[in-house]
Amino acid sequence: MSARGRCAKVLPSELNKVCPERGDEPATHPRKMSDFEVVPNLQQSSSSVSRSRRKAHFPAGSNEKENLISWIPENIRKKECTYFVESSQTSDSGRIVCECGYLREQHLDDAAKPPIFLGKEWDPSRHIQEMPTDAFGDIRFTGLGQKTGKYVRVSSDTPPRVIYHLMTQHWGLDAPNLLISVTGGAKNFIMKPRLRNIFRQGLVKVAQTTGAWIITGGSHAGVMKQVGEAVRDFILSCSHKEGEIVTIGIATWGTVYNRESLVCPMGGFPAEYVLDEENQGSLSCLDSNHSHFILVDDGTHGRYGVEIPLRTRLEKFISEQTKVKGGVAIKIPIVCVVLEGGPGTLDTIYNAITNGIPCVIVEGSGRVADVIAQVANLPVARITIALIQKKLSIFFHDTYELFTERKLVEWTKKIQDIVRSRQLLTIFREGKYGQQDVDVAILQALFKASRNQDHFGRENWDHQLKLAVAWNRVDIARSEIFTDDHDWKPADLHPVMAAALISNKPEFVKLFLEQGVCLKDFVTWDTLVYLYDNLAPSCLFHSKLQKVLLEEREHTASSKMPRLQMHHVSQVLRELLGCSTQPLYPKPKHTERPRLSIPVPHIKLNVQGSSLRSLYKRSAGRVTFTMDPIRDLLIWAVVQNRKELAEIIWAQSQDCMAAALACSKILKELAKEEEDTDTTDDMLALAEEYEHKAIGVFTDCYRKDEERAQKLLTRVSEAWGKTTCLQLALEAKNMNFVSHGGVQAFLTKVWWGKLSVDNSLWRVITCMLFFPLLYTNLITFSREKRLQPMGCLAHLRAFFTAPIVIFLMNILSYFTFLLLFAYVLMVDFQPMPSWREYLIYFWLFSLVCEETRQLLYDPDGLGVVKMASLYIKDFWNKLDICAILVFIAGLTCRLIPSTLYPGRIILSLAFIIFCLRLMHIFTVSKTLGPKIIIVKRMMKDVFFFLFLLAVWVVSFGVAKQAILIHNEERVEWLFRGVVYHSYLTIFGQIPSYIDGVNFNIDQCSPNGTDPYKPKCPETNADNKEPIFPEWLTVILLCLYLLFTNILLLNLLIAMFNYTFQQVQEHTDKIWKFQRHDLIQEYHGRPPAPPPLILLNHLQLLLQRGLLHRPATHHKLKEKLEKNEEAALLSWEMYLKENYLQNQQCQEKQNTEQMIRDIAQRVDVLAELLDLDQMKRTGVVEQRLGSLEDQVHQSAQALRWMMQALRGNGFSSGEDVPPIGSSKALEAKEIDLKGKPEESRPLYHVLARNLLYPGSHTLRFPVPDEKVPWEVDFPLYDPPAYSADHKDMAVQDPFSLSLESLLKINYNTMDGLIDRQSFHGLYAVQDGLPLNPMGRTGLRGRGRLHCFGPNHALHPVVTRWRRNLDGSIIRKSLKKTLEVLVAQYPLSDVWALPGGSLEPGETLPLKLKWILRREFWPQFQNLLKQGTEVHKGYLDDPRNTDNAWVETVAISVHFDSQNNVEMKRLNSFLQGCDPELCIRWQVLDKRIPLHTNHKELLHKVSTLLGAYY
Q1: Which residues touch 626 (CB under 8 Å, ≥6 apart)?
Q2: Is residue 851 within 8 Å of 879, Cβ to Cβ?
Q3: What are the phi and psi torsion angles at 692 (to 5°)?
Q4: What are the tens digits of pLDDT across the range 1375-1408?
Q5: pTM, whole model, 2 decimals?
Q6: What sign does the CA torsion over 401, 406, 409, 410 have?
């Protein structure tokens, strides 16, 4: 390919250098804090929104590549050897290579020239240079699948922030919620099939559910191959969206086989890579299942482990970043997962534990993992060199002879330190009770580490909850966080509740509701603004809000976009819900609004620049709660089409039926504007689901009580804009709901008014024509009216105001109007209008007045413009306007004598339109109404058919006219020939002259001069016979009739049939839905029919115009009293709960659901049966172990009793049989003796940390059993280290020469230096004192300034923690303390205010930094009055074999809150060094202090009887 042709340098695969055999992935060496670069946090891409924003930055793929091609060489380097020095080793082919491992020709041209100031020996620091990288882009693995990933070649000195920027900004990766570093054996190893499957499934599950990055070594071998295959299996079994797992391989560039195919200075897009395991030799191939590769280059070839330091720095850098997602800001956690492994893996585990990274060890994977798993539960004192040697002989039986004695000591020491940090160590055992999945073990390991992490106050629990929300693992939250160990207050969960809502995590929302979060307390005005501020930009509602804000900015002529307020939301919602609803959120009168006041400390949540923590920390007296918080949350969820979230919130709602119908309306309106078809389908499906919910609740209500259910239909809902359920259903066109039997029964009841619905129609018509019959029993009234006494006028009023009577009277009136109109047109149409015609004009005037009333009738205050638009939308209103306008046009022509006849024609057309208006009357009929609907639908089919027909008619007509007739200039005859005759041909009227046989020249005009005859066809001049091609016209006629008569007409019939079948299924629903409009119209119509209706119009005009009385609302609304409404809503909510329970029961009884449940149970049962017998009886083993302990205790008690009896002379002289097995007893005694308390080790621990603080010096490993000087340790050969403190006036020499050491006087006062130990005389060997607590692994004085004891003073200043009223706060029935702690400059941890004593000083220098000079003598008096809690050796990381810290800890306790000395101390603390941080901190075992300071605090709390 062309990319290869551009390669600058080729590294032939056959010239790979031989490297030492490696048994595992190289180790991560410990590094101190100063080794890592201090860089500012990069802005994280926290969601898919940021990814889309980055994509918007690169509008096309070519632009993105160009950006990469320019950015990578400028920021990322590679390393190359610039000086060839011949090595003693040779390549695989026997050729000479450089010390770097490359051949001579693989160096630059200048590398082989004589050296200039380079030295004779090859030095990587001088002979390797950095230059722009030449390998980056897309890597495509050839072969099956054609997998593609990203890759880059980087220098080993590349800053981690640059790589992280590349991954997040240029590779488009979202910042991870979790970093999983998988390490272990780099050679292929065998795992048990079941364990392998469990590991693979668990790893990808935790990565996929939490959005984690998996980091491995990237090669196609060992644990990296296991991870790759796990990702591959997951991708193959899941959909495309679910299968996105970020797997990053960090490998050494010099050990990658076939790496020459990746070299391309301009980037490989893509670079073809061949995975060839057979010929790779000592090198490694990249794994094809990884998605990204970082290839670390140090300029050498064939040397493994080069990538480890960079990998360590990168992982540490990522773990220090803050990930913001869904309102939750978390430090990205990291966990190390270990499979198998060798010495390098042990170093990786040790470094991880040292850096506070939790590790998950998979037992059963082999080698190091199994060694650690075997001893993890043992006390540290029992982990001896002999035990480790035994374990190594078992698990390293092939390479056990390579372990030297020093190596065994080192392994023992590291394993002891690893096991000592049990809070960071998790052993995954196959089949362990309560731990069946690797993903659960990984997350539990992180939570266990977090729980045991030092913290101030509640930060620890908050951090765990934020992690669970970020990972979306509600199962972990239930099992690990919401336990009896911590009491969560509902207010504490408000910020994470908001985060769960924003990030669309319904399971967490449900969990928080179960934990007591009250939505009425949670949802406040500012909370809603915050939620709407954080709508997803891809949401349609968000774009509509932005449009409203933009319009407001243009209206106010402001340059700044206005801040989002709830009245903006209300404006959009009113567009969606319809104008029949009032604004849900009125516009505030003042710009300043009340703020929130729910205090939630110690939680940092941040989204788009606004802080949730600040949102919930406003003054307590200024909280604004919304009218219906559940409604507000429901709307917020629905407008984003969040189905599960909305369902949870709807289940909490009170006005549930109105809420469901409103949600249906909103979703349908949004679906009309949504461009994405999938989202549109989802919205419509969700809208239908909410309609079914409303139907379900209404059905249960109607079954219980019909009257109360019908009240729910017409009740004015204040929460939903003063509208009703019925109005919402009509606005949303919820035909299923409106066609419900209960709704139709209500409409029927309204239709009959105060009459009984049992009356037959003929009785109503009879009484309407002969109203005295009303006073007989021919007509019955409704039950309410029958219970009330009615007079004569009341009977008349009740009858003639019933909508059905008004409708029948209007029908009678309309038929009379049409008969009179027809009579005038056909019989009595005179030049001068007769009285009948005048009556028609008067009648029409009444109709116009009624239409005007309907147009101006505005009970909801929408305005004339809106009412006009609603009026015009109705088809029948359009027909009315058309008929009236045509009538007026005809009337105008009729009154002019010269246009009398055209006026009659126009009036005749108006009569046709008035007759068509009769169809609206028939819609009330259950028989004719559905048929009219079908006719309306078929009219649409006819219009589409006419378009197709016009194509054939015009094409045939034009061709026929052009062939037969020459230059016809008369337009009317052109229209007849082209359109009219062609149209009639379809129905069989074929022109006689078209074939020439029946041609008659008398029937046409030869020249086209006769206006009543068509022009003759083309004829000859002699005998006047047609000369046009008859065969062609006949063929065209046949084809025309074939396509029109047979094809198009049958197509029209088929369309009619399809429409009929389609509409027939829903005709009943459609008719029932449209029936409401007719009932609503006559329910609010004046009772008198036209033209008598003018009297009602006159009455209305007088009331509104002169008397100014408010208009009578005839809409189907009912405003209930508060008590009645509350009772009705409570009843509705109760039945809603029953509905939801019934739905759950139906889902459980569903066949498909039952099959899924059974399959799930079978899978669980199969897993249990698949476990081996030992694992399945784990609980039994625990019980047996407990029983064994009890038996052992009983045996010891019996032995003591027998010894006591024998001592008192009760022995029988015979040998007493042993109680129990002697071997078992011996083992048990050893076990019991070997269980010292873990929190109090026998020997110093901090003083034996392998990495000495503040240096690169590594101590000699000293296991616990080799600490005492009395124990023989021939291998002990510690290094020497003494720091030169230039800032100290007095310090011992840092040279260990005997001459300088002989000048020191030990065990006495040596000038100003006190070299006396609190533990008595200490030994001196070869001029150096020996640490009285034993070996530390380091000689010299380290960072201490004196050999021997270095004295220190640590005052422990405490006071009682009190409430606002002064009472002491208790915890677990014990008083709680507050202790004075300080954080010194350049330190990340807090400490007690004390430290080393300078020679001749009585107060430590660090204590003087805190206190002002004038308070020093008074503080010395406080120390004299205090209680000494510790005096002696202090386990300090700075201790060595020859120098150690001894301290005096004095408790200074202020028992009273009014203590004068405490107040003075606080006042003098305020004037201390500004670089210091001082605080009174609640004393707890998790307070983040130095470990040795915690031991002092424990003693103080024990002394005072306080909680610890």
Answers
A1: 523, 524, 525, 528, 632
A2: no
A3: -65, -35
A4: 899 999 888 777 777 888 888 888 878 888 888 8
A5: 0.71
A6: negative
